[in-house]
């Protein structure tokens, strides 16, 4: 996740991505939601993802030989090749030549070569209606001889998205599902903004029902909870996501999008790749965890991932995808 100070662009996005508070009921704070969910009965964990495969992919992407997956480096290219090899084991088809959507940008006066990885599974009932699932695969690379592994940020999101491709290979979705593995998120969400500005055929903005963006989904030092960002701006999505809560022991909380009474720095709408979709007025949901001490540190390693939480989180995310596919 690329946390940044709130800028003028961010404030402009918030202005048109957040509905008028005079027209919407006051949302519950995160603390009020935690209180409401406390003491709820435990349920059996759904098994919609493969735990071994999920952990194996996360470990591989955050391994030292991936060199922190910095955009434009050999480590980033190695991670990209790994993702493509995993997609080729599924029924997903390339949405760009050789799965890859290259683009360039300038960093410190030099041209950086970046590449998004794009695939698609065609829908069985509404193939022209699209759910865009995304996770960024780049991270911070190697600095001063230290590898920034990026296990939670965002090998965890990439591994979960690969699990979704595996799942929907066996259980074809009603809508078409586009799988976007974005590059250069840590450099200012550049991969996501390039994608929405250069949609590969036959995609069109008005065919995208929602973007579901995954960024840091494997550990939470606050509690056993996952945050969904986007239901204040897209209230029609909240009742759909709420159907997942009785099926999980994770607290699915709604917030971090500039609610009344919070500061502008608490607005996560513009802090990961969903911002590119918000800027085009496409509905979005961002799923992620609260910041933790290893965020953007060399210590964000696979060994520090909360594996039981991660498995439960991945299953909750899969249930959310199934509900959106069913109800949109």
Explain the overall architecture.
The chain is of the alpha/beta class and 328 residues long. It has a single domain (8-327), classed as Zn peptidases (Aminopeptidase, 3-Layer(aba) Sandwich). It has helices at residues 8-17, 30-37, 51-61, 74-87, 151-170, 190-197, 238-242, 274-279, 307-327; strands at 93-94, 100-107, 110-121, 126-136, 142-143, 146-147, 175-182, 208-214, 225-229, 251-254, 284-288. The longest helix is centred in the last third of the chain and has 21 residues, at 307-327. The radius of gyration is 18 Å and the shape is globular.
Topology (elements, then pairings):
Blueprint: H1 8-17, H2 30-37, H3 51-61, H4 74-87, E1 93-94, E2 100-107, E3 110-121, E4 126-136, E5 142-143, E6 146-147, H5 151-170, E7 175-182, H6 190-197, E8 208-214, E9 225-229, H7 238-242, E10 251-254, H8 274-279, E11 284-288, H9 307-327
Parallel strand pairs: 4-7, 4-8, 8-11, 9-10
Antiparallel strand pairs: 1-3, 2-3, 3-7, 5-6, 9-11
Helix pairs in contact: 3-5, 5-9
Write the CATH homologous superfamily. Zn peptidases
Given as residue ranges, the uncertain stretches (5+ residues, pLDDT < 50) are 5-12, 18-22
Proportion of beta-strand residues: 15-25%
- Which class in CATH terms? Alpha Beta
Instruction: Please tally the helical runs, counting DSSP H or I stretches of 4 or more residues.
Output: 9
User: What is the helix fraction of residues, given as a range?
Assistant: 25-40%
- Mean pLDDT across residues: 92
């Amino acid at each position: 996740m690329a946390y940044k100070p709130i800028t003028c662009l961010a404030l402009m996005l918030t202005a048109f991505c957040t509905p008028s508070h005079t027209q919407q009921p006051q949302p519950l704070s995160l603390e009020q939601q935690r209180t409401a969910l406390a003491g709820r009965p435990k349920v059996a964990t759904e098994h919609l993802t493969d735990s071994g495969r999920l952990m194996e992919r996360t470990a591989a992407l955050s391994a030292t030989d991936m060199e922190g997956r910095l955009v434009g480096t050999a480590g980033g290219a190695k991670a990209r090749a790994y993702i493509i090899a995993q997609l080729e084991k599924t029924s997903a088809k390339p949405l760009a030549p050789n799965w890859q959507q290259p683009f360039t940008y300038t960093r410190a006066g030099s041209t950086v070569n970046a590449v998004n990885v794009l695939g698609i599974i065609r829908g069985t009932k509404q193939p022209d209606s699209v759910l865009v699932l995304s996770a960024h695969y780049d991270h911070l690379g190697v600095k001063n001889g230290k590898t920034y592994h990026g296990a939670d940020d965002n090998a965890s999101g990439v591994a979960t998205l690969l699990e979704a491709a595996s799942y929907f290979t066996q259980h074809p979705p009603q809508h078409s599902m586009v799988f976007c593995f974005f590059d250069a998120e840590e450099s200012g969400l550049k991969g996501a903004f390039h994608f929405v500005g250069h949609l590969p055929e036959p995609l069109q903005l008005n065919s995208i029902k929602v973007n579901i963006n995954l960024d840091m989904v494997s550990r939470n030092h606050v509690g056993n909870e996952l945050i969904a960002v986007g239901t204040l701006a897209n209230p029609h999505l909240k009742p759909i996501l709420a159907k997942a809560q009785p099926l999980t022991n994770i607290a699915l909380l709604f917030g971090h999008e500039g609610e009344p009474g919070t500061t502008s720095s608490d607005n996560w709408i513009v802090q990961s790749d969903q911002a590119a979709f918000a800027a085009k007025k496409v509905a979005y949901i961002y799923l992620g965890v609260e910041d933790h001490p290893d965020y953007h540190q060399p210590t964000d390693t696979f060994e520090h991932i909360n594996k039981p939480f991660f498995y439960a989180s991945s299953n909750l995310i899969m249930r959310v995808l199934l509900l959106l596919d069913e109800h949109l």
